[in-house]
Q: What sequence folds into this?
């Protein structure tokens, strides 16, 4: 069981067709805009133009269809009409506090960058690769370490994870078309088969599933109630399976190289 | 820049002194309880006793101070008074839908396990190690792959990350006591020095910082405006620094072993 208490509830907030208000235009605002651009939300940015950092101004101009910029200070509760989330990025505690109070009255989730105690939620370091999103939170114990953990996680990825997830999503849809039905026996059978594929195949192999390979996998696997190997499916459909170099291979190669060198040395010496 | 659109906003929701209502008592409810126990929220669980899974019943009895169980069906909007978040874990779409609508009316964030479209937020695979929390979301493309990515991330960790983060948090507090002041020049100097330590020291080294080592680090590092090595601080304060084996070491060891074996073979053969 996980250790209890003291942590946050890490969740994936849905912002499709929602409106997020960002107040302030500095570096933190740019970070917030980046985070919200990950979603499909509309962004309202309230900040006098002279307060925009270079990066914020750039984002506003690149994403002009997603971001509406109001060149003025936050003007009061009227700003909150039809807003689903508020993020303040101000260097002014008092104004942040006022905005938080207005949000609280209307039960609008709010994050104030400069007043952690008033936040409904925090941000963390994030990784995104297509449909894959990873968030790292240190619960306020240092953003630097969150960034280091993020780098560590990133370097453990092969870079094919996002694609693998996309392909598995597509395979699952095709399987559902082939064997429709919600819940019950067929649903469970689908889930078991998909799980077995994900367990037997590496991420890199899953990422290589193209349309012909998917059809072959469903034909040779699902229809025959078995779990084919990546080799069986990918090689015949024109792609080649991934090759991972195991640490044992490195050791063996080293031993062989050492042996050859020593043999040459001794043989040449004897002459 | 991150790829835009189509994703979720991954956030760390704060639930200190908040109340979370969970409706339903099966396996999903147990998972929800586990997630919420990570935080400091009070949990209200509404489900007839006969509907509790073994695991849910166990959690209710172990965490009796955190979880209040109401042995009945969800009775209507009265249940939502003073509730800050609602999680339904029912096998009954219609009841889930009704509860979601009541939540929407009162602007209470809600997750309905059986109706993704009505959810304000989703859950993902999670890792917790003390103050460190990691969440993995595939944005609905398969929980199995989220679990695989989670395992991959876990195996890239040394297991010292949580402790390292705790120690860095403590070091930062001690530094703030020694050099107080919010923002401004001293705040920036503190941040720079802490960042340099986190960059120069490995997680395993940071995890070994005990009280005497922290004092020494502040004395020899902060006060002298330099970044001491882990060796300098940890060895003299009675702990030993961590040793990582680089791949190059493996290769060199292999070469040496191979050379020795071949030398022995040739020498023995000559006799």
A:
């Amino acid at each position: 069981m996980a250790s209890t208490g003291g942590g946050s509830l890490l969740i994936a907030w849905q912002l499709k067709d929602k409106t997020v208000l960002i107040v302030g235009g500095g570096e933190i605002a740019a970070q917030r805009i980046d985070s919200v651009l990950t979603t499909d939300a509309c962004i309202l940015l309230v900040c006098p133009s002279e307060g925009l950092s270079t990066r914020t101004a750039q984002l506003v101009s690149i994403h002009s269809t997603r971001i509406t910029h109001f060149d003025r200070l936050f003007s009061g509760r009227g700003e909150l009409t039809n807003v689903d989330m508020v993020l303040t990025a101000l260097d002014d505690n008092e104004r942040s506090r006022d905005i938080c109070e207005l949000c609280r009255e209307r039960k609008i989730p709010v994050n104030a960058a400069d007043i952690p105690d008033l936040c409904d939620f925090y941000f963390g370091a994030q990784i995104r690769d297509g449909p894959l999103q990873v968030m790292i939170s240190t619960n306020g114990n240092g953003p630097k370490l969150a960034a280091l953990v993020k780098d560590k996680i990133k370097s453990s990825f092969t870079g094919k994870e996002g694609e693998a997830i996309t392909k598995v999503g597509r395979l699952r849809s095709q399987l559902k078309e082939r064997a429709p039905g919600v819940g019950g026996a067929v649903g469970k059978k689908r889930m078991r088969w998909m799980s077995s594929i994900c367990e037997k195949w590496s991420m890199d192999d899953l990422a290589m599933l193209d349309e012909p390979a998917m059809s072959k996998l469903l034909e040779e696997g699902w229809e025959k109630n078995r779990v084919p190997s990546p080799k069986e499916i990918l090689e015949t459909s024109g792609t080649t399976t991934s090759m991972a170099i195991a640490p044992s291979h490195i050791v063996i190669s080293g031993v062989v190289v050492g042996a050859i060198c020593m043999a040459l040395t001794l043989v040449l010496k004897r002459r």
Chain A has ten helices and nine strands. The two ends of chain A are 68 Å apart (CA to CA). Chain A has a mean pLDDT of 90.
